[in-house]
Every structure is written in structure tokens, then in C-alpha cells.
Amino acid sequence: TVFLTFDDGPNEEITTYILDRLKALNWTATFFCVGENVRKNPKLFQRILDEGHTVGNHTDNHANGWKTKQKEYLNSISKANKVIPSSLFRPPYGKIPRKLIKEISKDYKIVMWSFMAYDFDKRISHDVILQKAQKHIIQGSIIVLHDNEKFIQNEKAVFEIIVSVLQEKGLKSKALN
């Protein structure tokens, strides 16, 4: 088992694609959602939950912990919490100042990752992603992908690469809890 995670959604096109593929594979995953996107796509968010996936908080507006004042950052988490019922949190950009870790950890389990798929970076070739995935993904890996409207075609392609690597290794995804 591994843990597929998706950051930044939900987004109608890419999240729907991912959900359809996960359903066909009989896999579950965890979606770290942005509050603004949940409010834009409430039915899609409900579908994520209805299909047995888990969700986590990814702030209300994809706030950068290094560039946002502490109070504003915590308010973004709190605002997202109103539409994302979860005790899981992943900081956008994977960056969070130490002073915030202690504060956020009072209410959330902060979830990072062990494998970044770089589906947001078109400069990294699919061959390189495939090689890194084959080498580094192992039992228990937490894999981060995205369901962000900015990178849809690359996200689909990289997601399929990750699926093929998992299938080759006899691994399947389940949701974090």
C-alpha cells in the first residue's frame, strides 16, 4: 500500500478525471483541498467524500507560510476548516515556519510526503519522473500529486506514470486517516 495525495483542488476537470481513474482502480486517496476551491465545487467535494476518499486542509487560499503573516495564515486555515472537515493539514508549497508548526499541530496532523511527482513542472521530463518513481516509491510512500487547473495535461500524464509504476510494483493506494 501507498498513499496517493492530491493538493490544490478540487477542480472540475482534473479532479473528476482522478476520481474516475481511482474508482476504476478500486483505490482511495487523500485530497488536500483549498477552501476557495471547495466553495466553487461543492458537489465535486462531496463526491470525493462519498467515494471513500479522505480530505485535508490546504488553507483557504493556498497561502504561503513563508510570505504570509502568522495570524493571516492561521485565519486561512481556520476559514478552510469551515468547509473541509478534517484533522489533516498540508502546508502549500510544503513550507512552514517552525513557529507555525507548534500552533497548527494543536489541531491538525501535519502531513508531508516521501515522493514528489513534480506534475506541476513541465521542465522535468516524463522519463525522469518515471525513473525516479521506479527507484523511490516503496511500500508506505506518501506520494504528492496535484489537481490544479494550471497543469491539467501534465498532471494527467504524470498521474498515469505513477499508476503504472504502482501496478508494476504490485502496490495500490489507500487514503490516509
- Uncertain ranges: none
Strand order of the largest sheet: 3-2-1-7-6
Amount of helix: 40-55%
Mean pLDDT metric: 97
Question: What fraction strand?
Answer: 5-15%
SS elements, strand count: 7
Write down the Rg.
Answer: 15 Å
- What's the main sheet like? 5 strands, parallel
List the total number of helices: 7
Q: What distance lies between the first and last C-alpha atoms, to the nearest angstrom?
A: 14 Å
Break the fold down into its secondary structure elements and pairings.
Blueprint: E1 3-7, H1 12-25, E2 30-33, H2 35-40, H3 42-50, E3 54-57, H4 70-81, E4 88-89, H5 98-104, E5 109-110, E6 115-116, H6 126-136, E7 142-146, H7 152-168
Parallel strand pairs: 1-2, 1-7, 2-3, 4-5, 6-7
Helix pairs in contact: 1-7, 6-7
Give a quick summary of the entry.
The chain has 177 residues and is α/β, with parallel strands linked by helices. It has 7 helices and 7 strands. A 5-stranded parallel β-sheet has the order 3-2-1-7-6. The protein has a two-stranded parallel ribbon with strand order 4-5.
